Amino acid sequence: MTPTDLGPVPAEQPLTYPGRPVTEPCLLAGDELLPWDPAALTDRTPVIAVGSNACPAQLRHKLRQDGLPCLVPMAPAEVHGIAVGCSAHIGVHGYVAAAPYAAPGTVRTLVITWLDAEQLASVDRTEFNYQRVLVPGTGFLYVSRHGVLADPDTGRPRPGAHDQRALLTALLAASPRLRALLGPGPEHWVARARAEPEVREAGKRIFVEEGWVRPAGLVITGEPSTPRLSS
Question: Considering the entire predicted model, what is its pTM?
């Protein structure tokens, strides 16, 4: 694959969130995706990506901000008991990021990244709205500190890690208060939210006051083992 295959960086183009995830085992090496190399997993920690950390372009962006080498094994893998919703906050880049929640019986293909100690610390710093927890048999997972957003029509968690423009459009349509704060459209939302921390906090309060916030139901401990890669 060539550098152009990595796609846009969601931190720079918020409406492209969650970015383009990897679809097969590979080694992210700077601007390239190289063939999978199991030997590269040595002394690395597996971390489940439910949002933009599954996107090589976003992961490269995060690591380069800290001046770290961008050499990361990445692979789709089967993960049990976890579904992907939307975190009940507005991120610093203006988008509503994905967040996992407990879904017993669910089997989903998510991307696993294997990070060395410095890379893990770097990604931790970008995930200050999340708590990193252990998932037995799989690896680590970032769980939102704010809970997940529910669909007001069903009361169930909204699906996350999909079309950000469609998500913001739906949220604006569901709340006159959000439209007044961040509308009328997704472009206005991300522009205002990126520029003003107070607006992000006000939006988060509206999520709560609208009755949309649900707990993720994920407080997990244990030792990670090797995930089963998807074919």
Answer: 0.90
Residue 171: count other Cβ atoms within 10 Å of its Cβ. Answer: 26
Strands 71-86 and 26-29, sheet pairing: antiparallel
Quickly count: other Cβ atoms within 10 Å of residue 116's Cβ. 17
* Reported confidence tier of residue 219, pLDDT bands at 50, 70, 90: low
Largest CA distance in the chain: 53
What does the pLDDT read at residue 135?
86
Is residue 67 within 8 A of residue 125, CB to CB? The reply is no
Say how far apart CA 199 and CA 193 lie, in whole Å.
6
pLDDT of 132-143, one tens digit each?
A: 999 887 889 999
Amino acid at 162: H
Q: Which residue has the tokens 């709205």?
A: 129
**DSSP type of residue 80:** E
**Which amino acid, residue 45?**
T
Rounded distance, CA 136 to CA 226, Å?
Answer: 10
- What is the mean predicted confidence (pLDDT) over 115-124? 97
Q: Which residue has the tokens 């991120």?
A: 91
One-letter amino acid for residue 16 of the chain = T
Determine the average pLDDT of the residues in 148-173: 95
Residues 1-26: b if buried by 16+ CB within 10 A, e if exposed = eeeeebebbbbebbbbbbbbbbeebb
